[in-house]
Please model this.
Amino acid sequence: MNNSESPQEMVPPVEGVAGGGTAYGWDDGSLQDQSLLRGTIDPSRVPSSELVHVWCMPSTANVGPQETPRSLEPVSLLAARNERENIQIAIRPKVSWSGSSNAGVVQIQCTDLCSTSGDRLVVGQSVKLRRVVPILGVPDALVPIDMPVSQINLLPGETTAIWVSIDVPSTQPTGQYDGEFVVTATKTDAECAAQFHDKSEKYQVYRELRNCLDVIEQIDGKPNEEVVERAKSATTTLRRVLLSPSFSDFFSENGPLDMMDEDANLSIRLKLSLTVWDFVLPTTPSLPAVIGISDTVIEDRFGVEHGSAEWYDALELHFKWLLQYKISPYFCKWGNSMRVLTYTSPWPADHPKSDEFFSDPRLAAYAVPYSPVVPCGDLAKDYLQKEVEILRSKSHWKKAYFYLWDEPLNMQQYDAIRHQASDIHAYAPDARVLTTYYSGPSDAPLAPNNFEAFLKVPGFLRPHTQIYCTSEWVIGNREDLVKDIIAEIKPENNEEWWTYVCMGPSDPHPNWHLGMRGTQHRAVMWRVWKEGGTGFLYWGANCYEKATVASAEIKFRRGLPPGDGVLFYPGEVFTSSREPVASLRLERLLSGLQDIEYLKLYSSRYGRDEGLAILEKTGMYLGPERYTMDHNPIDMMRGERF
Amino acid sequence: MNNSESPQEMVPPVEGVAGGGTAYGWDDGSLQDQSLLRGTIDPSRVPSSELVHVWCMPSTANVGPQETPRSLEPVSLLAARNERENIQIAIRPKVSWSGSSNAGVVQIQCTDLCSTSGDRLVVGQSVKLRRVVPILGVPDALVPIDMPVSQINLLPGETTAIWVSIDVPSTQPTGQYDGEFVVTATKTDAECAAQFHDKSEKYQVYRELRNCLDVIEQIDGKPNEEVVERAKSATTTLRRVLLSPSFSDFFSENGPLDMMDEDANLSIRLKLSLTVWDFVLPTTPSLPAVIGISDTVIEDRFGVEHGSAEWYDALELHFKWLLQYKISPYFCKWGNSMRVLTYTSPWPADHPKSDEFFSDPRLAAYAVPYSPVVPCGDLAKDYLQKEVEILRSKSHWKKAYFYLWDEPLNMQQYDAIRHQASDIHAYAPDARVLTTYYSGPSDAPLAPNNFEAFLKVPGFLRPHTQIYCTSEWVIGNREDLVKDIIAEIKPENNEEWWTYVCMGPSDPHPNWHLGMRGTQHRAVMWRVWKEGGTGFLYWGANCYEKATVASAEIKFRRGLPPGDGVLFYPGEVFTSSREPVASLRLERLLSGLQDIEYLKLYSSRYGRDEGLAILEKTGMYLGPERYTMDHNPIDMMRGERF
Model:
């Protein structure tokens, strides 16, 4: 301490308040009469609202264990047909009532959402519940829970969030649908004595019943006295079993208890209301978002051999599961120097499964492999020619693209692309080759500075690339550079400009890294729409670190920001199901793609300038460093569509 | 992006590695042959080491859910008799094997620690296990678990820590004690099918058995055919029940399964070794550490009325539980302007309980109330005189002190202390009055600057205070100021210098706030010993925010750093027990007090300068901003005692 210290620095280290010292009782206002809660708390006799906080949070909130309670308000959502809308319901114990290391167990239940005309959004089908589970301490994994009723353990001092998704079918009648989300504090199963105390107790019951059976099993031809004797013995045994503590929960002083005596009036009831608009989101997304799935990761983690029947099954499971997110998956195997083998169907073009995959109306684009995915008799070149000839004859050919190299960096790599593209265009002049890049060749500069060289890549690669797919990282916060990039693209030659994100850009720019804000995740797609790209690529959705057991702990790869290249998790880590577990970030990707459909509809009516104007007017997205952190502007934008 | 950007800024956003992109497989070295783990994982057939990481961490580590695994090494601890030594055992799942939202369940078991001569440190008595539970996301609460065997749920991607405490009795023979900590991955109870799937399934079984009983119950006098018929019917029912899925776990193709076939060889065994030294820590701590317990908080939270039988019980429970931490509790009620009523025994001085409390050899100091704690017939003044007369006649009187006011700030408050102290000294000239302060009176400056004024407080208060208890915050990182403070104290008049911490000092200085490092918590006591204070005060150990339910969520008070004034939690929040739940920080307080005994022993042999020298030599504590963040120097210091 400096002797010349000013008096202000000598502030009291503790401020006093009467009644217990230092601001004791400031929270008093929220204390109600808790006289019901003296002693052991029986949740079947106390309103659940005395035991838990329940409140809603928007889907763009990251609701972690430390989230503090808010007031409970009814939920009103708006959705188009063929849209998924999400809301989170947060639950936090006010007290502990279980007597175990849990604070307690709550039963959560969701009803169907019904319209006055009797139409329904059925729970388990259109309405789904998932628990938000932290990854590296950040809320991310959405683990399915039982529907319509499930039990959740709550921990003292921790908030748990339930992610509620409502998928509105394309044919759903418009109107308002109402339902309820019900939270009821309960005893644990053990406390209900619905279960045996332990295995040996159950074994004891089993043995007694077996003995009983042995006694009365073979009575045919036995003398009457023996039959009676045996029946009496069995009676005694049965009576003993039934009166044992194992079944004591079915007795009370007034005889057997009613199984269904739980007082539903004690529950916390949250009204869920969804208005379905007279507008159907297109089945095929307007903006193709192509997302890589590492086949190597699938092969290693699930122990399926490349080309085996199990391998085809595993890939198909991934493909079909991802389609619900309105993205267009491509499988991917990395070669040397970032050469990539990409393919949307693991089967050859003439296989019925390929037709099924490519024709799916939800698929907006598919990758065609340059060489055989699974070794076959043909030479690679013959293979390519045959594949292309088959695919060109199909109506889905317009979705096809070739993705040959990830981020070429030098002349040799650029030349490899030119060479492969020449082969492709020899068989199909209208084939689309996609190239991702963020710079020109480092060993033959196209211009005196990097950005100028980057701009010249289309001129340099033409006609060997049709989809110029550039890193958003290059643009940084200089949205004005977009017009320079677009000026180099020739739409009249069917050229397109797409973008991608990966390690970069980093915070505060939109990306899908773990730990970013919810609106930051969703803004990836807002950015694409505002900048005017006509497609989007993401390098990996399952690129966790290597493991050889399906349920192995998920580790992110060294050198990558957490969550980069990972948009879902193997189901086996969290459940007994093989169904993948989505991340919050994948849901926000879908929400962003849906937002694009809203913006596109609005622009189709009033023009793109008006579409851009509502981004500004609502404050939803103004630029890569200026977008909303709050959810309201999103609903405002969506409400603007009429 | 700036066009003049240098090439270095244009670094590749993704680095490529063959085989799956971006550093895939870097962790490969740790992958063993996991062929055992294909498909559904049966923990009873796989070494647990394939399923979980187990490793040790020192007691000064804050082991949170994100703690990464280390290699498993045997534990060797050193402890004196009458000392508590702690170690943490961390467990993290490598894979999920439960098929539920848990990764899996592990059974943990600790054996007694035994010496070759047959002496024991018995688990459950000398060896205790507690689970480390985060508070506000920071590992802090130590929740007791069952001993010697317990089951722990592990979550995917999260580390769980078990706090192992070994209390060495004063009479324990010296020598080496060996034991084991055993971790076994197991099926959950539900998977063992020890339990019914749900209550309705069990009810079904119950009803079938009841019907069966009804059928065979009353057969006396019935015709033979009917008896046989009834027995057959019962047989059918019983057979159906026994073959139902409820009991399927007792069958296999080879007949009923052996209940006890778990292979103990699959467990992970961690050797625990403790060497008990030929040195007994004093029963009465050398340094009195007096710690406040808010009676108001106890009254509100546990619903006990001041002065009722339950109130005395609650206070006694707290007093006795805290004594194990070698601290000297005082109960405390705040009045206006930080006037405090402090008392170590809620009973009058002539009550046998007061004698029991004050005579406890573990108690180093006790607070005597200035006025009646529970209203009695006497006038306050008569009360004081009577109390003092009784206590002065006791041998424990040397432990007594009066603590009248918390941090007087102006002349009126200083005068109040003088007035009360005069009363006390009138009846007992040798009574010790303790005053906490960090400044002189603000309305009558004792010197031109704050620190000079602070230094003059002893001269100003003399003879009305004997224990000058100053905030460590005043000293800051200027350890050299300590000599100025001590120069004002007159030990020849039985004056003492004590210190305290509360809101301040803050990081990086030693204190007990949540989120500080483990060595920072433990260093509070190292600092006291180095600075030469002869006692220590802490304002509150249970000063959470107001609540009126014992198991209510713990909230820290507004305006205080998290954890300030809170060293333990109500047991009801985490367990069905009333026994308080200690914080890590309380354990580190105890460890720090034990460290003082080591330093004192060393200094008693070689002199205080040598004692100070080992602080420096080991790097354990050099000053409030220079102390070890690593555990090793602590064990080095403790090893120096010979």
